[in-house]
Amino acid sequence: MSSRIVLASNNRGKLAELRAMLEPLGLQLVPQGELGIPEAEEPFRTFLENALVKARHAARYSGLPAIADDAGLCVDAFGGLPGVDTAYYATQFGYPKGDEHNVRALLEQMRGVDDRRAALVSTLVGVRSPEDPEPLVAVGRAVGEIAREPAGEHGFGFDPVMFLPSFGRTFAQLAPEVKNANSHRGQAARQMVQLIRERWL
């Protein structure tokens, strides 16, 4: 097994978080952009399928093992949506793409909705090769409620309106290290590191 693994993402935050967790295993995480790998199509309706297609794509182009993630917000009252469309949520309602617009659109759509339960979900998939029949799959879920208005300065995405009853605050009100320890991505990353240790090393 190569000591280098491709991350099928160019997101700096994801890279830093996963890199720090994989280093103790003697593994080096390389973002796909550094290897000139183009972004994969994400045609599917589930996080799992999109993460798998991204990981296989990066492994095929690089000849190395690859990890990919797909993540989003799943709102109970909307049957789990926006889900895989989370990043483009605002554009469905005539707003430009962007975190602030996403938050505004969500609060507008949830006006008068009493069931505020929602989960931020991160699905990480790892493959040793494009044909790997046994991909590693790690899922992290941070369950909370959609707040009635944004609060907090930290984080990104829907963090200002993702209220966590266990903390009594939104993700954006938590210190970054507390958020990362409890976030959907943090949970999935820790599981993935454990799976790599057990099955690949």
Automatic annotation (TrEMBL):
Superkingdom of the organism of origin: Bacteria
InterPro entries: dITP/XTP_pyrophosphatase (IPR020922), ITPase-like_fam (IPR029001), RdgB/HAM1 (IPR002637)
Active site (catalytic residues): 70
UniProt xrefs under Pfam families: Ham1p_like
Cofactor(s) the protein needs: Mg(2+)
Keyword Magnesium annotated: yes
EC number: 3.6.1.66
Regions crossing the membrane: none
Binding sites annotated in the UniProt record for Mg(2+): 41, 70
GO molecular function: dITP diphosphatase activity; ITP diphosphatase activity; metal ion binding; nucleotide binding; ribonucleoside triphosphate phosphatase activity; XTP diphosphatase activity
Cofactor note (record): Binds 1 Mg(2+) ion per subunit.
NCBIfam families, alphabetized: RdgB/HAM1 family non-canonical purine NTP pyrophosphatase
Family label: Belongs to the HAM1 NTPase family.
PANTHER family assigned to the protein according to its UniProt record, in alphabetical order: INOSINE TRIPHOSPHATE PYROPHOSPHATASE, INOSINE TRIPHOSPHATE PYROPHOSPHATASE/HAM1 PROTEIN
Subunit and partners: Homodimer.
Known function: Pyrophosphatase that catalyzes the hydrolysis of nucleoside triphosphates to their monophosphate derivatives, with a high preference for the non-canonical purine nucleotides XTP (xanthosine triphosphate), dITP (deoxyinosine triphosphate) and ITP. Seems to function as a house-cleaning enzyme that removes non-canonical purine nucleotides from the nucleotide pool, thus preventing their incorporation into DNA/RNA and avoiding chromosomal lesions.
Descriptive protein name: dITP/XTP pyrophosphatase
Organism: Ramlibacter pinisoli
